[in-house]
Amino acid sequence: MPITSAINGTLDVIRAHVGSVTWGPLVTLSRSVVLSLLKRVELGQIVVTDSNGAVTVCGSRQPKDGTPSTELRILKEACWVRLLLFADMIFILNRKQLSNATTLASSVASTITSLARSTNTMTNSQLNVSAHYDISNTMFEAFLSDDMTYSCPIWSPNSDPTSTFETLEEAQETKLQQFITYARIKPSDHVLEIGTGWGSFAIAAVRKTGCRITSLTLSREQKALAEKRIAAAGYTDRIEILLCDYRALPTPIEGLYDKVVSIEMLEA
């Protein structure tokens, strides 16, 4: 309905800019909520240095050997707002302390976050992807395999004698090859990939079958690096990366896609 569309459009504009707001009361509320959650940490230590120089120690005052310790430096006050609304902070060692929170601050955080991310609109999707993937390609390179394949790999069973020496990249390659096989991709296919990652599937599919791929991403950082990797592999004539939401994808002039592939994270 027109009225509903107008309301949703207005909310999208608000959501798109709220993460950069530095309005005093909102910053104060956001800081209070985030710090109240961090103070629930029991294992390990997080030292928070605010933009005004104030230091807050969350967790163990004197971490034991082997217990994680890190420092969070807040350079801009807007960071508190973004942490409250858009950050998916997961502390594995403290999951019992940080889950099912019943404090007033946690309730406020849940309510505000729900308002800001209540619907999977195209604007919200862009914000979520940017907050996650546009942080730094270098960060992801630090823990992904050399081919920069995201999501879970497929490891060989323990009964396989070679499983002991299997690398992460080999397990990721197994996954990519299974998708290519199960999708029955042929040289003549024009494949739509929803979620480019850093281009590993597109490169693997073209290398094996010679197909053509149009791949979609909402991350500028992913697109830039994926295109470099595709060019290095010599497949720029077979793979096109679009910065586009799948809901806004126009129909190809030459006809519909032959196959659609989307390799996602579980939480997506």
Structural commentary:
The chain has 268 residues and is an alpha/beta fold. Helix content is 43%, strand content 13%. The strands form two sheets. It has a four-stranded parallel beta sheet with strand order 6-5-4-7, with helices on one face. Strand 4, helix 9 and strand 5 (212-217) form a beta-alpha-beta unit. The longest helix has 17 residues, at 2-18. The protein is globular. The model is unreliable at 1-5, 88-92 and 101-105 (pLDDT under 50).
Structure described in brief:
It is built from ten helices and seven strands. The chain has 268 residues and is α/β, with parallel strands linked by helices.
Q: Descriptors for this entry?
A:
single chain, 268 residues, alpha/beta, four-stranded parallel sheet, three-stranded mixed sheet, 7 strands
Strands, helices and their partners?
Blueprint: H1 2-18, H2 24-38, E1 45-49, E2 55-59, E3 69-73, H3 78-86, H4 95-98, H5 104-116, H6 122-133, H7 137-141, H8 168-182, E4 190-194, H9 200-209, E5 212-217, H10 220-233, E6 239-243, E7 259-261
Parallel strand pairs: 1-3, 4-5, 4-7, 5-6
Antiparallel strand pairs: 1-2
Helix pairs in contact: 2-3, 2-5, 8-9
Q: What order do the strands of the largest sheet run in, or round the barrel if closed?
A: 6-5-4-7
Largest sheet: 4 strands, parallel
The proportion of residues forming helix, as a percent range, comes to: 40-55%
Instruction: Provide the structure class.
Output: alpha/beta
Counting H and I runs of at least 4 residues, what is the number of helices? 10
Percentage of residues in strands? 5-15%
